[in-house]
Amino acid sequence: MDWIARVVDHDPNALAALYDALVGRVYGLALRITQSVSLAEEVAQDTFWQVWRQAPRFDPERGTALAWIMTIARSRALDAFRRIQTNECELGPQILDRLECPGEETPPDLLAAVQERHVLHAALASLDPVPRQLVSLAFFRGLSHDEIAGYAGLPLGTVKSHIRRALIALRQRLPPDAHSKR
């Protein structure tokens, strides 16, 4: 896997190839640990973001690139799992009442929600790796532009530009009715 060497040189095509080759394995490991689809997706994104940032730290004498990446994924998945375990809380009586008696509200159409999610993920997948990661940090992790800049080690203006261009690209790729639902 000379992809790591190319990632060290900040070759986004190498990261994309590495992602395509290993995302299934990373996601599978994360899913087994977290038992949550959304957390596993987050862990997979975080893993490849960390590979992008820390590729110069990879030492082939200490192990294979696959082992290094899977170790990162395992660590991220365990962190995510621990985070949800410590953040769990009991539902209060008011919330339980609303769950038991939803009133006139109807549950969302599950099929439509799944289809919307697939459309969004396809649009996100069409972005270059760095903007995709930055958008993921902003929307799925809830980080501010300042926090993303610190996390990514990028200038604030660069982060804002990448996210702005990525959002414009997403708007062009998503169906018009997806824009008005939010």
From TrEMBL:
<dbReference type="Pfam" id="PF08281">
    <property type="entry name" value="Sigma70_r4_2"/>
</dbReference>
<keyword id="KW-0805">Transcription regulation</keyword>
<dbReference type="InterPro" id="IPR013249">
    <property type="entry name" value="RNA_pol_sigma70_r4_t2"/>
</dbReference>
<dbReference type="InterPro" id="IPR036388">
    <property type="entry name" value="WH-like_DNA-bd_sf"/>
</dbReference>
<keyword id="KW-0804">Transcription</keyword>
<comment type="similarity">
    <text>Belongs to the sigma-70 factor family. ECF subfamily.</text>
</comment>
<keyword id="KW-0731">Sigma factor</keyword>
<dbReference type="Pfam" id="PF04542">
    <property type="entry name" value="Sigma70_r2"/>
</dbReference>
<dbReference type="InterPro" id="IPR039425">
    <property type="entry name" value="RNA_pol_sigma-70-like"/>
</dbReference>
<dbReference type="InterPro" id="IPR013324">
    <property type="entry name" value="RNA_pol_sigma_r3/r4-like"/>
</dbReference>
<feature type="domain" description="RNA polymerase sigma factor 70 region 4 type 2">
    <location>
        <begin position="119"/>
        <end position="170"/>
    </location>
</feature>
<feature type="domain" description="RNA polymerase sigma-70 region 2">
    <location>
        <begin position="18"/>
        <end position="83"/>
    </location>
</feature>
<protein>
    <submittedName>
        <fullName>Sigma-70 family RNA polymerase sigma factor</fullName>
    </submittedName>
</protein>
<dbReference type="InterPro" id="IPR014284">
    <property type="entry name" value="RNA_pol_sigma-70_dom"/>
</dbReference>
<dbReference type="InterPro" id="IPR007627">
    <property type="entry name" value="RNA_pol_sigma70_r2"/>
</dbReference>
<dbReference type="InterPro" id="IPR013325">
    <property type="entry name" value="RNA_pol_sigma_r2"/>
</dbReference>
